[in-house]
């Protein structure tokens, strides 16, 4: 009993000390940054095992973690959202702990507690348990105690307009200085050992052959064999190190670029066609491949060739300085040809963008093209664009042909020059001459490779310029904003006015309304009245020049629109389904939803019977073109996806336009029973008879408000719109 009482008091004392330390650190933080509220924001502490494991993994990736809200410290998704990174689940299969796959967050089978898996320099893993503060080497027995799924964290680009310097710094942070040091040291040792062959040539022709020392040939052969084996081992080590860096760089850059694209504002995608944008996004992959496969390899070879140069200088300083002029002329000629080629490559990249955008449009609309029997017309347009691209490609390639011919001819010219120089100005022994020539051939090959790689650096500049629109556009949420919690579904709009860029006409002007939680509201009006634009503003796709939008008394400008949309159900006119099962289309990426939730959503959308009649039910596969679904089934599936999370606010942009009267009645009845604020942008006015309020828009203004019956009785614009549809 005394021991238990002692342990209890000890734990209470320890907990109190931790709280005091936490309070002290928080006060220090508030001195540094007075914007942080100590009641809402807390420093990383030992009370959250998940946060501790996450911080260890983040530190490995050089990810900075600021203060984390207390309510977010036990939820991985919330932590990642606050820090601004993405994550995905990975499977721990086979002998996974034997190879470096990056730092991971795993979970113990026994108590589901999170642990950090950190790779060591030898490629194996160490496990850190935040609860016990224990560190263990991962082996077969320990791996069996872990769940089969783990979490991999992806670092994001900083929330600002990115420069070339930012990209280089980001790529540099993807691997450690130890990786670079290991790469250079192995390369240096390989470069030094490579001198064994020219040095051995000098010894053979200067000493062994003239003096007839046959026994020394065998000694030299053994030394050369050892040098070749050692050089091969160093080259192999360098290759492994290079592949390790390449993989790390590939993982981080690919994820960061696509994370940036997904974080861009919706208005950005209006100005760029899908095919063109895909080409721009692929630029980072092309840059990475250039630096990995060509530039880094050649630059390292060029740097390590300095040992050949020093060896040549030790044999004949005069001849070495002379051949240096040949190398400089090589650089100048190569650079001149590259600059001339650059003009055509820039024009070529623009043509590639346009052709990609055109091809995407053609493939997307192939059914319409065939229905109009317009294949020949589109083929003619394609040939025009393709011909321009090929002409520029041939012009750019002609400079590559010049360079290829020049680099093939240069060694012969250099050899003739060296022979002439030695015969006229220099007296070298046969051994020294052969050694000098062998070193020069290797040195010249490395320098030519280096000069050609510098041309590829100019290509990287083209790709960077091409994707500048992606790098320079700011993400939708550039700073930490408030996250709505316990959302009730209220919207208020005050003095809202909006017009598009380069358009003098106001699309919306001085709108004012308030929608209470649970209301069923419709916005109607003639074409061009601003209905869809209003929806884009409410969803944060566009930003109004004047006025404000409030969600539950929170200004939309101060909210994280990314997090807000997760609280909403949305069905847009141009919403598309994903290739996959019906189940995956309904629940999306929500890991906390199951098949029963999907069936409830399908029932609410009037799609349950259709799905049950399909061969594989909820697991029926659909393609991106929805060939297996009718238009009405597609829209009901989109509605099911919108309501599956039981949101407090649902937006419909003419979501029932493709439904027949029977199905429309089922969906309308189900939606009326759904307890949420419902806002519908309606063109088919028979679908809004049950609405609590209807706002009639004309020329960007609200001209009428009321329910269906009162507006018909009033005899204004709404009645005219209804009568037109009845006719």
TrEMBL record:
Localization of this protein: Cell membrane
SUPFAM superfamilies reported for this sequence: ABC transporter transmembrane region, P-loop containing nucleoside triphosphate hydrolases
Keyword Cytoplasm recorded: no
Keywords: ATP-binding, Cell membrane, Hydrolase, Membrane, Nucleotide-binding, Protease, Thiol protease, Transmembrane, Transmembrane helix, Transport
Spans traversing the lipid bilayer: 180-205, 217-234, 290-311, 317-340, 399-422, 434-458
Topology term for the membrane: Multi-pass membrane protein
GO cellular component, as recorded: plasma membrane
CDD domains linked: ABC_6TM_exporters
Predominant subcellular localization, coarse grouping: membrane
InterPro entries tied to this protein: AAA+_ATPase, ABC1_TM_dom, ABC1_TM_sf, ABC_transporter-like_ATP-bd, ABC_transporter-like_CS, NHPM_micro_ABC2, P-loop_NTPase, Type_1_exporter
SMART domains, per database record: AAA
Gene3D superfamilies: ABC transporter type 1, transmembrane domain (1.20.1560.10), P-loop containing nucleotide triphosphate hydrolases (3.40.50.300)
Record-level Gene Ontology MF annotations: ABC-type transporter activity; ATP binding; ATP hydrolysis activity; ATPase-coupled lipid transmembrane transporter activity; cysteine-type peptidase activity
Record-given protein name: ATP-binding cassette subfamily C protein
Organism lineage: Bacteria, Bacillati, Bacillota, Clostridia, Halanaerobiales
């Amino acid at each position: 009993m005394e021991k238990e009482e002692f342990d209890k008091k000890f734990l209470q004392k320890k907990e109190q000390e931790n709280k005091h330390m936490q309070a002290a650190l928080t006060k220090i933080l508030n001195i540094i940054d007075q914007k942080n509220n100590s009641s809402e924001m807390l420093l990383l502490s030992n009370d959250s095992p998940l946060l501790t494991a996450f911080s260890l993994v983040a530190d490995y990736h050089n990810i900075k973690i600021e203060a984390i809200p207390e309510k977010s410290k036990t939820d991985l998704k919330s932590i990642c959202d606050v820090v601004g990174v993405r994550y995905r689940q990975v499977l721990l299969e086979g002998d996974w702990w034997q190879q470096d796959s990056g730092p991971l967050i795993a979970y113990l089978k026994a108590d589901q507690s999170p642990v950090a898996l950190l790779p060591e320099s030898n490629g194996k893993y160490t496990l850190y348990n935040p609860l016990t503060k224990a560190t263990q080497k991962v082996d077969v027995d320990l791996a069996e105690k872990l769940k089969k799924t783990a979490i991999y964290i992806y670092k994001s680009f900083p929330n600002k307009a990115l420069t070339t310097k930012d990209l280089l710094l980001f790529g540099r942070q993807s691997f450690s200085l130890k990786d670079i040091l290991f790469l250079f040291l192995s390369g240096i040792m390989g470069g030094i050992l490579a001198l064994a062959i020219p040095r051995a040539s000098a010894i053979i022709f200067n000493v062994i052959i003239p003096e007839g020392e046959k026994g020394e040939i065998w000694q030299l052969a053994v030394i050369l064999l050892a040098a070749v084996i050692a050089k091969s081992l160093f080259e192999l080590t360098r290759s492994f190190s290079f592949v390790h860096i390449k993989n790390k760089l590939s993982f981080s850059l690919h994820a960061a670029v696509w994370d940036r694209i997904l974080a861009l504002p919706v208005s950005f995608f209006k100005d760029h066609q899908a095919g063109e944008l895909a080409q721009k996004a692929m630029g980072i992959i092309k840059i990475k491949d250039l630096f990995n496969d060509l530039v880094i390899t050649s630059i390292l070879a060029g740097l390590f060739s300095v040992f050949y140069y020093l060896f040549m200088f030790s044999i004949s300083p005069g001849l070495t300085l002379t051949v240096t002029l040949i190398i400089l002329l090589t650089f100048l000629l190569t650079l001149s040809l590259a600059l001339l080629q650059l003009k055509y490559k820039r024009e070529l990249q623009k043509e590639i963008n346009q052709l990609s955008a055109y091809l995407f449009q053609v493939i997307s609309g192939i059914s319409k093209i065939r229905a109009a029997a317009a294949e020949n017309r589109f083929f003619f347009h394609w040939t025009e664009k393709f011909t321009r691209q090929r002409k520029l490609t041939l012009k750019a390639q002609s400079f590559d042909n010049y360079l290829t011919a020049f680099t093939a001819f240069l060694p012969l010219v250099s050899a003739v020059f060296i022979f002439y120089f030695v015969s006229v100005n220099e007296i070298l022994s046969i051994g020294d001459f052969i050694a000098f020539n062998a070193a020069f051939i290797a040195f010249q090959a490395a320098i030519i490779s280096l000069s050609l790689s510098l041309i590829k650096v100019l290509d990287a500049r083209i790709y960077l310029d091409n994707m500048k629109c992606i790098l320079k556009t700011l993400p939708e949420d550039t700073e930490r904003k408030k996250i709505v919690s316990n959302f009730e579904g209220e919207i208020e709009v005050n003095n809202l006015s909006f017009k598009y860029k380069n358009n003098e006409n106001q699309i919306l002007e001085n709108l004012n309304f308030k929608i209470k939680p649970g209301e069923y509201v419709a916005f109607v009006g003639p074409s061009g009245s601003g209905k869809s634009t209003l929806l884009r503003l409410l969803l944060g796709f566009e930003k109004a020049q004047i006025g404000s939008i409030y969600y539950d008394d929170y200004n939309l400008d101060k909210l994280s629109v990314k997090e807000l949309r997760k609280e909403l159900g949305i069905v847009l006119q141009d919403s598309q389904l994903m290739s996959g099962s019906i189940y995956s289309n309904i629940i999306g990426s929500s890991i906390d939803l199951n098949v029963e939730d999907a069936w409830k959503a399908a029932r609410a959308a009037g799609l349950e019977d259709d799905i049950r009649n399909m061969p594989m039910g909820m697991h029926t596969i659909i393609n991106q073109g929805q060939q297996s679904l009718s238009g009405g089934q597609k829209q009901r599936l989109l509605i099911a996806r919108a309501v599956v999370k039981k949101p407090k606010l649902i937006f419909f942009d003419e979501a029932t336009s493709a439904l027949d009267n029977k199905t429309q009645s089922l969906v309308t009845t189900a939606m009326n029973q759904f307890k949420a604020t419902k806002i519908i942008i309606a063109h088919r006015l028979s679908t809004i008879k049950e609405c609590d309020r209807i706002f009639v828009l004309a020329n960007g203004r609200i001209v009428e408000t009321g329910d269906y019956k009162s507006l018909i009785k009033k005899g204004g614009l709404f009645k005219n719109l209804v009568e037109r549809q009845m006719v």
